[in-house]
């Protein structure tokens, strides 16, 4: 699929079929995340793959009861590792680079999902402590994105965007 077509096909999906995601597709998607750029190539992030039903349900609760979250066959949770980045970059690593590292990795995963015929939605509304608890991650890691993914059970509508003139300045 042409890259620009892929970008058009990536639409947030909040309803998923029960069909399992093939292991090969999951691995490909994780490799895509792993290929993302990161500050100093430190990859100051962690990814947790959640397939366990009880854990998925708990994650749905942690996302302020967004019920669709738990219906995905797989939920990926992306964490930033502030201290890993801070060890080299100090405050800028702690506050910014690790968040960017995790965000870009999630972005790559989301686009790779489309290339494999999968759909997802970026979920950012959650209780940090609850997400950390469900994922069993250390307290120093910061959850950045929850990504339920699977085969779409809906045809999401295409959302609009601002015009480029509202977003871009030329100097
Ligand atoms: C940082 C971030 C946080 C988001 N949080 C949520 C969320 O908590 N729940 C949800 O249903 N969608 C969430 N979304 C998805 C957006 O609503 C969606 O991307 C936006 O409406 C544009 O639609 P599209 O993804 O189909 O292009 C989030 C997206 C981003 C990038």
Q: CATH homologous superfamily name?
A: NADH Oxidase
- Beta strand count: 4
CATH fold-level assignment:
NADH Oxidase
- Lateral arrangement of strands in the main beta sheet: 1-2-4-3
Ligand list: flavin mononucleotide
What is the number of helices? 6
Q: Would you tell me the overall average pLDDT?
A: 97
Total separate domains: 1
Low-confidence stretches: none
Class by helix and strand content? alpha+beta
What is the H-and-E element order? HHEHEHEHEH
What CATH architecture would you give?
3-Layer(aba) Sandwich
- Give helix % range: 40-55%
Q: Can you tell me the overall shape?
A: globular
Tell me about the largest β-sheet: 4 strands, antiparallel
Alpha-carbon Rg, integer = 16 Å
Strand content: 5-15%
Question: Distance N terminus to C terminus?
Answer: 34 Å
Q: Which SSEs are present, and which pair or pack?
A:
Blueprint: H1 3-9, H2 23-34, E1 45-50, H3 53-62, E2 74-80, H4 82-115, E3 119-120, H5 128-135, E4 142-150, H6 164-167
Antiparallel strand pairs: 1-2, 2-4, 3-4
Bound molecules: flavin mononucleotide.
Explained architecture:
By secondary structure, this protein is of the alpha+beta class. The chain has a single domain (23-151), classed as NADH Oxidase (3-Layer(aba) Sandwich), CATH 3.40.109.10. The protein is built from six helices and four strands; from the N terminus they run ααβαβαβαβα. A four-stranded antiparallel β-sheet has the order 1-2-4-3. The longest helix has 34 residues, at 82-115. The radius of gyration is 16 Å and the shape is globular. The mean pLDDT is 97. The structure holds flavin mononucleotide. Flavin mononucleotide binds next to loops. Residues 11-12, 14, 66, 121-125, 156, 159 line the site of flavin mononucleotide.
């Amino acid at each position: 699929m042409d890259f620009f077509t892929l970008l058009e096909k990536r639409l947030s999906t909040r309803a998923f079929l029960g069909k399992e995601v093939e292991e090969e597709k999951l691995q490909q998607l994780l490799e895509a995340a792993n290929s993302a750029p990161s500050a100093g190539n430190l990859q100051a992030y962690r990814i947790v793959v959640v397939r366990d039903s009880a854990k998925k349900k708990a994650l749905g609760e942690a996302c302020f009861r967004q019920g669709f979250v738990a219906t995905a066959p797989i939920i990926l949770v992306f964490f930033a590792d502030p201290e890993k980045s801070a060890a080299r970059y100090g405050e800028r690593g702690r506050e910014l680079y690790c968040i960017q590292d995790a965000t870009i990795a999630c972005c790559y995963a989301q686009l790779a999902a489309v290339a494999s015929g999968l759909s997802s939605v970026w979920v950012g509304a959650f209780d940090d402590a609850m997400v950390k608890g469900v994922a069993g991650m250390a307290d120093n890691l910061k959850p950045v994105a929850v990504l339920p993914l699977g085969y779409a059970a809906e045809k999401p509508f295409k959302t609009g965007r601002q015009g480029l003139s509202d977003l871009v300045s030329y100097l």
